[in-house]
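Moderator note: this is an archived Q&A kept for reference. The question asked for a predicted structure of one protein chain; the sequence and the answer are reproduced below.
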Amino acid sequence: MRRLLLALPFALLPLAVAHAAEDHDHEHGSLAPHEHGVASLNVALDGQTLELDLDGPAMNLVGFEHLASTDADKAKVAAARTQLANPLVLFSVPKAAGCTVDEQELNSPLFDPAPEERVSKTEHHHSDIEAHYAFTCSHPEALKTLDLAQFFKTFPATHTFKVQLIGPSGQQAVQVTAKAATLTF
């Protein structure tokens, strides 16, 4: 299944190109790879397996991108990590689908900075937080939607998800916002 998610960007490339052209028309430029308030979410549902790959600026989730040095910043990082470690709540996976978390991986330089990153605290780097989740769903037919409202409430600095989805209905690329927080499979 991980291969399916890795292939997702290539499968959706025509949709992404069209979407980028649309953004260009509306914003007079394409989106930067690291844009505050915006996160990407790749979603794949294949049989009983649901996978989610989240990538977003640390600014969206903890309010800063530098390595945590104060107790307050360390607490924000720990809280975000704890919240991200509960994907069934964060992504409001329907209980009727009977999904259980099989695999979970959280990555960010803020979570476990390498020794060389600790030394260069004065330099400003754009830090992202990435999360990968794999679920087994005993009743995947009940997985008609994925509600991201709780994610937006938990991390209010995230305003938009750029979603690439492969599901039973095919492929799609959509934007999900706090005002329209439901993703349909």
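Archived answer notes: DSSP finds seven helices and eight strands in the chain.
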